[in-house]
Structure formats: structure tokens, C-alpha cells
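Encode chain A's predicted structure.
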Amino acid sequence: MGILTGAAAYLTVLFGFGFEPGRTANALGYGSNFFDLQARALMSGRLAVPDGSLGIEGFVIHGHTYMYFPPFPALVRLPVFLVTHEFDGRLTVASMAVAWLVFAVMSARFLWLARSLLRPDDPVTWRETAGAAVVLAAATGGTAVTFDAALPWVYHEVYAWSLAMMMAGVYWLTRFLIAPGGSALAWFTASTTAAIFTRSTSGFALSGAGLLVAAFLLLRSRARRAPRARWWRGPGLVLAAAAALPNLASVALNEYKFGHPYLFPLADQVWTSVNEHRRMALAHNGGTITGPQFVPTMLSAYLDPTGIRFVDHFPWVTLPSSPPPALAGAYLDQSYRTGSVTAFEPLLTVLSVLGLVALLWPRGRTGTTRLRPAALAAVLLIGPVLMYGYVCNRYTSEFVPALVVLGSVGLIVLDTWLGRCRVGIRAAAMALVVSGAVFSLVAQMLLAYATAAVTWRGDRLEAYIEHQLTWGPRAAVRTAALVHRSDRLPDAAPTDQIQVLGDCDALYLGSGDTYEPWVLVQQRSLVYTVTADASVRPGLVVLFRVESNTTREIAIDVRADRYARLVVQDSQGRVDGPWFPLYSGFPVRVGLGVRSELGYAEVSTTPGGHVAYVPWTRWDANWVVRPGVISSAENARSNAARLGIQVTSAGRGPASLCEHLIALKRNP
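Encoded structure for chain A:
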């Protein structure tokens, strides 16, 4: 029942609160096709992917473009890619669903394995079964895994597989310590290999724990003065080999791609070449963005119990209103709004503390010794993210294996203690456990919904704001209080503020993040009607201008034979649309509107349809994303009249959501 509850939460989010098995994190599909590109490259016998295909995430080494992500999720796609191209770019949801299933199964198996070690002779009670179901629901649906499901792209897919392989690895490592054998060793090796070729840090954690345990077994065997043949053939050496081989394979791959055993040459990443702040961060931190100087900042960001925000409007539970600040003089690469583990997963946090105390207690229960390596691996995984100068909510996923491993032990300890308490105390404790799990499940789902809507934008972001108007008591009044109006977009963007420009010319949402403070919800389109006179003359007339980092003009190009086309031009050249006829008395509508889900302005004609997409957003001097400016060209009508065509304004497109918000603001 616990896994089914977790599955309901996770899969609801993963399938987009509906059923979209092929969905991507954003409308352009960027980041959701990286492993597809890697898989196709592997099928062609190379590691390098097509030049430019990864955008700012690519590493250009000796003229070839590489992913910094290891290739295991790409290998998972190969059986499909061997037979069809139909699903290229649309397999991330399916991949994450399979990974979650592995994570859920291995989490459940580890919990019951821990129980068999800590209480081998005690019968299983209904209270213990119910507690296990609640904890499994919290682990599989109430942790960062559900937040990750909101955005099916490469950054979150690697966590889905990393967490799955981590839980498999710690389970089989524990099984090997209970009964050393070839089967457990083979599964541990396979899990560690898959982990290290998904997200290197998870594989290093498993490998490191395995090597430490192997060293302990070898030293203990030598201390007991066992015959040489006996300790040489014992479990220590084979475990050391099983733990070291995946590590060596990962080192070899990284050396081949980047010329370093485990680091990435950030100076060779495309993002570094275009972003001055990244270059400054590298300069301040000695050519890397990793080091102990970041630990105070990360501990505060990821473990602060106040790292959550409750609001009086949908979604009610969300991230803190601003990114965490750098502490102790650290110079961060980037910092995004981030929720803390302790605030969003309070039940598993408390149980993990109990579990950690139980495992460290010198006179602990029989069986704790065999569980300590699993806990060690899970804790080792957290180390790298605490020393990485980049803060974002997805990195709380690094804490999930520790929450599951230590939380499982903590549950068993709690149930043992409750067995000696009065009925009233047991009932109160169970109520708190259930409440903690429900809170985490609901909080992660609400956060996931908001994250998916703001990332996708377009109709989903509009639906998100409409939910704010209708969900909850006095929802419309509370949302109207967030609405502000101005003639220009303010530089400051208070989190959740809804900003109306002019007469609903545009509607924005304050994101609270530094790098894109305002997110476009909707914007009215500019529309012209073009009508030909009895005779026309050849020429070109500019109708619209789009100002981003480059100013682009949208013009109509007219031929003497009464054919015309739209042209998009800038200082670098021009792109021509298809020719269409101009008939006297039959108007052609030319429109320019921003597709917020794409971040592009779309040029279209009626009849005719889509003509071109024009980049609309711009980057300021600090590489903060700002909205562009769309305007009608000066003297467009008079210049067109000289060519024998009439250009008249057909008004601006509808902005129904914005108009509704303004009406509520006036009459709440």
C-alpha cells in the first residue's frame, strides 16, 4: 500500500497531472533529448554528439562536443532505438518511470532487510506493517524524487537512475555482508557500475563504501592470523575488486573525454564561454567551483528547518521567496530558490536522526554492524553536493538515499520503543508519522505542479494562475492582492507578484529567482491588415521591430506581379518567407505574437499560417534574462501606401486572463 501511494504521487506528477507519456520539461524539448543524442552517437560508434546539439551544456574538447553526464541512461534507450526513430526525444518520462520502479522496490527490500537484521526473532505486528507502508509512501512519493518528476529532462533523469542504483547498491552490499556470495557480489558490482555511469558521485559513494568495508575485512582477517590462502580467498579481496572496477572504468571514460580522472574542464563548457559570472566564479575559486568553502552555504540551504514557505494562495506550500545567500565569503556559481530537506521531509528527517543514533550507539542491537556500510555510502553521497558552488532544489535529491537508509533503521527503533508504551502514546505517535508522510506527499506534489507550470509556461502557466483564482477560500480576493499594474516592467520582481503592463499589453509573474526575475504569462499580439490597391509597386516595408540582444525587423516584400512575402532581417542577414498573392479587396492579416512557452515571437499570416520564429528574450550585462520589446515600425502605413498597399491596425490580440485579473483588482 505504501508503494502504491508513492506511485500515485510520483506518476501523477511524472505524467503531467494527466497522461502525457512523451512530454518534455519545456516546449522546445531542450534538455529532454540529451541521452537520445548520446544513444544515437553510441550507435554510430562514437562518444561525441553533434556539434551544437547540447547548447550551453556542451563541452567542446579538441573540436568535439561531449556531455558531462555519463552514458548509462543512454544505454537504457538502445533497445528502442535499434528498431525505431519514432520516440527520439520522448523517452525521458518512460525512463524515469522505470527508474522509480527500481528505486521503490529496492527501498522496500532494504527496509525489510534492515528489519530482519535488527529484530530477527520478533513477529511482525500490524503497527509495524502500517509504519513501514507509511514510510515507504513518504520515501517514494514524498521526497525530492517527486519534485524531480515535474521536469522530465536530463538533469532530473540522472537523479531518477542515480537514486535507484544507489538503493540497489546499498541493499546488495548489505546482503553480501550477511552472506558473502557470488550473486550478491555480482548485483553490487552491476549496481555500482550503473550508478557511476549515471551520476559519478553516486557510484563513487558506493565504491568508496565497498572499498572501506573490504579494507576492514582484510585487516580483520590478517589480525586473526588466518592462513594466507584463507584471507586471500576471503570476501575482503573480492569485494575490493568489485568496488574498484567500476571506479576504474569511470576514470578511464572521464580521462578519454576530458583528460582528468573525475573532474570536468569547466573552462571548455559552452556556458563558460558566454557567461561572465561563471568565468568570475572560476577565477574566485581557483579554476573550479568545488571546495570546502561552500559547505556553510550548502548546509544552510539544504538543512535549514525554515527552508519552506507557506502562502495563502495556491499552491499554499512552496519554496522560500529568495535564493539562499552565500555564507562565509563563498563566491557561488549560481543560486536558485531551494527548499530544505528538513522542512519538506520532516518525518524522514526525524527517523533518520533516530537511525543514525542507533547505528552509532556503541552498544547497539545485533545487526547494526552490517547496516553501517549502507549508511556510510548514503552519507558519502551527500559530501560532494555540500562542496559544490551551485545551489538548486534538485540537489536535495542527494539526501534521499540517506533518508531512506537511516529512516528505515529509525522506523524500526521507533516501533521497538512504541511496543513498550501505552496505547495512547502509540496512537499519538502513529498519527504524527502519518501526518508527516501526508505533508511531504502533498508538499512535493504542489511544488512539482508549480515548477512544471512555470518552466513550461504558455497554457500551463495560465492554468496555474487560474487555479490561484479558484482554489481555496477567498481565492480570487487573495490572488487579486498579488496583482500590480504599471506602464513598464519593474526591475525588482517580488516572488509571486502578478504584474500587468499597460492595458493588459502583457502579464508577468515574479519568479523570485535571480536569473529570470519576470516570467511572461501572456502578451497581446500585434496585428496588421494588409490590402492591395488596384496596382502595386515593388518594394519592402518594415512593419514590426523585435528588440532583444539584436534588433530584428519584420517587413513585407512586394513584387510588381502582386505577390508578397514576409521578411525577417537584422544586421547579420535576412530570412524570407514564402510568397503569397495579393488580391484587391481580399485582406491579409499579418500578426506578431509572443509564444511564452517558446520564448520566441511568432510571425504569421492569415491565410498562410506560420512564417517564422524570432528570438524575443534578451540577456543583460549580468546574464539575467529580460523580456524583449515588440513595437510597430514608424511610418509603416505611409511607406506601404507608396507601394499601393494599405496597412491598417487590426487591434491587439485577446488577453482574457489579464482582463479577468484587472476586473478582480477593481472589484475584489
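The chain has three domains: 2-33+93-450, 458-521+662-666, 525-652.
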